[in-house]
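Try it yourself: sequence plus S-adenosyl-L-homocysteine, in.
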Amino acid sequence: MNKNDLYTLTIESLGNEGEGIGKLDGFPLFVKDALPGDVIEVKVLKVKKTYGYGRMMKLLKPSPERIEPPCPLHRSCGGCQIQALSYEKQLEYKREKVKNQLIRIGGFSEPEVLPVIGMERPFRYRNKAQFPFGRDREGRAVTGFYAGRTHHIVPNTDCLLGAEENEEILKIILSFMEKEGISSYEEASGKGLIRHALIRKGFSTGELMVCLVINGDGIPGVERLADRLFQLPGMVSLTLNVNKKNTNVILGDKLIPVRGQTYITDRIGDVSYQISPLSFYQVNPIQTKKLYETALNYAELTGEEVVWDLYCGIGTISLFLAQKAGRVYGVEVVPQAVEDARKNAEINGLSNVEFYLGKAEEVLPGKYRENGIRADVIVVDPPRKGCDRACLDTMISMAPKRIVYVSCDSATLARDLKILYEGGYELKKVRPVDMFPHTAGIENIALLDKK
Ligand code: SAH
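Structure, out:
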């Protein structure tokens, strides 16, 4: 098989990133945008030792699971991977993916993976978007989304996964930039001012926040931009974030208030949360409620328990648990998030929670060594890279009755569950929650009991 060869290929399955996989004489080819059941004409792009990559040139016979995707940019934009697959099949695919990873990476033979909790209406679910700014060939400012695996901007101001308000906000920013001669940042040269627009909406309150990430210390005429934006209903916060580094990381550390508050408020269930631009907040509030309710349910609290919530962000899960626990301790590494968390405990009148600033893998072992802290239940919700070994080892030494592991990456979840299993915990069940419809992503909650 050589590069640029054309073949007819039947797609048999989906890979972990949502790519179609078919075999040519037993040799697997990964093909973006191809779905199980499709028969396609494929062009070979790259051949490796045991697998290769191909491009779908023609769809010869579409899979019965293929639907007409509502977004015309679903192939060019890197945001969605499986929008052309019926939603029902997306959920089946995600459940299988989780199960396979628990078997392959986690070493579990028969893991109980419950059906995925899906969405009734799987569009317009994201409360946050980070739009990159760049320039078109004529040098005019554009915004949209990155094409898959590149930093090429596909112009688009209305993503169907995001809030409807994004479009109007972006148009106001683009027209302001044109009128005032404000440039977009260019990665290649490191020149230009506007890097990203971060927009967040509180779904339950309708509040809107705009934070412009800039390669500088201010935007000339920003008051005029504020005047325009604050005419939009719900607009409560405009801030600037300074990021002068040549990096892929979107946000810098410094926040400059421009108008209104420096946070928005949202509600999940009975708990209200203040969220600042630098804090993590789950992107799908409809599914987050189901996620937190499942976590609370798995924690089986009676009102007496000491609970640790590691990687707690703005205290979302901590406060959910605090409604039913004796005492909750949260640990989080971002200072602003811990500030939000403390404020959130206060505005909800929950006094049985305490937050520590620092890395979970340092705070927990440190407190365990020095103060001999204990826990009845430990909840963790780490970023994609999973938990640090030192954190897992301390959890095992603390020997809580139950561990509830919330994860947005099933591969690192499987890896960490294996360690906890070897440390004396039985994996009772895993419940996937679809927080990210049309993408290959899936959130999971695993329940472990002390053997
Ligand atoms: N449980 C929260 C946040 C989950 S996201 C929620 O549901 O909203 C993961 C969080 O872990 C982020 O807030 C991130 O800032 C934090 N984090 C990342 N690395 C960490 C570490 N080593 N120790 C503690 N917190 C960390």
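One thing you can check immediately is this: The two ends are 51 Å apart (CA to CA).
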